[in-house]
Amino acid sequence: MDISSSTVSELLRMYVDILDELRRRGITRSSNNPVADYTEHLVAAKMRLTLNCNSASGFDAIDADNRRYQIKGRRLTAQNSSTELSAIRNLASRPFDFLMAVVYKPDFTIDYAAQIPHEVVVELARYSKHTNAHRFLMKRSVLADPRVIDITSRIAD
């Protein structure tokens, strides 16, 4: 499909149609940027986790042993190669047991992914007064920590 000759209005309508279809298929749960919803869907399915409702605070899924998982994704692009995940709130209250972080290549293929224990997140995250949340950079080097589990092969399609 060559979209280079499409108008801006046509492109935006296609984008809306794509988001609607992803939601209809159960891949996304909101009309926001699909990276977060897709990552939650993918990780939950591949790791056999049960997703919480959209309004749950602090964690996105649980496993059979009731461990709590915060799931975050970041898609790298030529314009933005930052590996900073979205804000992590209330970190001191231990709202999750593990952070599941997925970093995508520009075409949405998985570059790398990890299961990171809460204590590692606490050690590596930095508090931002401006956002009243912690910032976490999901650099590839995080995988070198022996407490971190590389889950790339388990979730890659």
Mean pLDDT equals 94
SSE order in H/E notation?
HHEEEEEHEEEH
Radius of gyration: 16 Å
What general form does the structure show? Answer: globular
Describe this structure in words.
- The model has no long low-confidence stretch (mean pLDDT 94).
- The relative contact order is 0.13.
- It is built from four helices and eight strands, in the order ααβββββαβββα.
- It is α+β, with helices and mostly antiparallel strands.
- A six-stranded mixed β-sheet has the order 1-2-3-4-5-8.
- The chain is globular and about 50 Å long.
- The two termini are 23 Å apart.
Helix and strand topology:
Elements (H helix, E strand, L loop, with lengths): L7 H17 L9 H14 L2 E2 L9 E2 L5 E8 L22 E7 L5 E8 H7 L1 E3 L4 E3 L13 E2 L1 H4 L2
Parallel strand pairs: 3-4
Antiparallel strand pairs: 1-2, 2-3, 4-5, 5-8, 6-7
Task: Briefly characterize the structure.
It contains four helices and eight strands; from the N terminus they run H-H-E-E-E-E-E-H-E-E-E-H. It has 157 residues and is α+β, with helices and mostly antiparallel strands.
Overview features:
157 residues; alpha+beta; 4 helices; 8 strands; 27% helix; 22% strand; globular
